[in-house]
């Protein structure tokens, strides 16, 4: 009985994969990226929605000097509340935008559109982190640690993006050595 042989794409005479193999690889990449972005966007939307309904610190329960239902953070730390509110709103809305765009299967087939979605997700996640930092700490010393951690994550993401762009530039400069990287632009 004959065993099925694995299929390995064969390079063509110019060193690149055939058009069909590249299209299959791109379709697989877009499908996986779409699923990953959808999961993250749904989780961020759900978390930010919940945080908007129940702001950090809770609400005033009675009208003893404060209006019942007003967030305590709003009255005690107004600047922190404003930061939390706007960052949470940005994160929630950008999550909804990503979810709506990903529901259209034709939208994510172009690499530039996928990159725009990735950038929107980065904005979403950094807004999410800023809302967390503004709402979770009351002391300045604790806040400094959280914002330093956010800065480290931001620097890491920028370094990763820069490193990726440098590698892509090298691959574009020497296509005979990096045919699979060069084709994904």
From TrEMBL:
Transmembrane annotation, as ranges: 35-53, 83-104, 116-134, 140-163
Keyword Membrane: yes
Pfam family for this entry, one: PGG
Recorded GO CC terms: membrane
Signal peptide as annotated in the record: none
Keywords: Membrane, Transmembrane, Transmembrane helix
Occurrences of domain PGG (ranges): 30-138
Sequence segments annotated as region (Disordered): 1-21
Protein name listed in UniProt: PGG domain-containing protein
